[in-house]
Amino acid sequence: MAQFSQQQMTPPILLAVPNVSEGRDPRMISAIGEAFAGEGVRLLDTHSDPDHHRSVFTLCGRPEQLADALLAGARTVLERIDVMSGRAGNPASRGEHPHVGALDVAPIVYLDASARGSACAEALVLADRIAEELIVPVFLYGELTADGRGSIRSRAELRRDGVVGMAGRMAAADFANGGLRPDFGPSRMHPTAGATLVAAREPLVAFNVQLARPATVEDARAIAALIREGGGEGLPGVRAIGVQLSGAVAQVSMNIERPLDVTLAMATEAVGRHARVDGAELVGLAPRAALEGFPDDIMLSGFDPVRHLIENALGF
């Protein structure tokens, strides 16, 4: 994993990367960002995408302060976003990105192994407070769900079939055959906010690659199936889907969970073996090493090394 020297700071600096199911209303996105930036917590970046209908906020702060800020932001999210009303009748209205809630995911990110315990504790405190104070069911994923055999529950597993699918699985009484019981909070979806997924994890990189025409969304989905972990050309720790953006642009959207082993250059090359790449974008921040060797002839849209490399943003 990436190691970021914090000079034995106590308590450590942690990141949080709340993903919110709103990517189209600038005023709403700004208000949510302001709510997340609580006392002692910095908002490092906001990335919004109208096609995915999603905004990704990157925060940094100390334990306790970070959970307070995330809860304040979550309150604003609940006041402003409804992912449940009319969802079954018009699923596409909520965007291309899979989701189960208004505050869809809220991972706490540790930057070196010594901070893992602090991140896990902060994530559990956050999960408990969202459930207790906002009455939203919370599901844990990733490291916090590891059992004795090393098996973990994934984000993709929980988001399968979206809010409608999760609501149905939560209503099912047979937990042995697909029924879901939240780790914290009520046993039914919140009437407007759905559910929230919480984790503690190392830094991952969210990365999108646009395909040049005449590639289609079907091409993007086929490529995603090939290069994701477990696919025919699977890259370890890569989660990928194919989506269609406005203007009939096809995109391969990825989460790269081991960005020091699979760099952005490697992921781009894997996509480029099957279709011409027309551009790419980084969602949020990434470790400097993840960008090593990235091809000069591919535009990385909106990338600013001062803001988007973790080491530079935090001054490490």
Protein model, in words:
- The protein is an alpha+beta fold.
- About 30% of the residues lie in helices and about 20% in strands.
- It contains nine helices and twelve strands.
- The strands form two sheets. Strands 1, 2, 3, 4, 5, 6 and 7 form a seven-stranded mixed sheet that branches. Strands 9-10-8-11-12 form a five-stranded mixed sheet.
- β3 (about 40-50) and β4 (about 55-60) form a beta hairpin.
- α1 (about 25-35) packs antiparallel against α2 (about 65-80).
- The longest helix is centred in the middle third of the chain and has 19 residues, at about 115-135.
- The protein starts with 13 loop residues before the first strand and ends with a helix.
